[in-house]
Amino acid sequence: MKGYIEERAINIANYIIEENATVRQTAKKFGISKSTVHKDVTERLVQINPTLAKEARKVLDVNKQERHIRGGLATREKYLHSNGRI
Question: pTM higher than 0.90 for the full model?
Fold first, then answer.
């Protein structure tokens, strides 16, 4: 594996843990695709630093469990604003 990929995977994991960030937020911050973020954390990082990979995975799992709630809130806000109620 190339050195810059390993470094990126570590930086991504640290960002996810420190900011409690989602895959989408992380991808936007680093200017890469969501699939690259996911692959870096779930596959590449496990080989480089398994402990860091586990910590980042915990955050991503919590975010995945909560995403339906965030999506519902976003939809609610969208319709509240579009119907002129607010």
Answer: no
| Residues 32-79 pLDDT 10s | 999 999 999 999 999 999 999 999 999 999 988 876 677 777 787 788
CA distances from 17 to 2, 4, 27, 42, 69 (A): 23, 20, 14, 14, 21
End-to-end Cα spacing for the chain: 52
Q: Tell me which DSSP letter residue 32 carries.
A: S
Four-residue CA torsion sign, 42, 48, 53, 54: positive
State how far the Cα of 13 lies from the Cα of 24, in Å rounded to an integer. Answer: 13
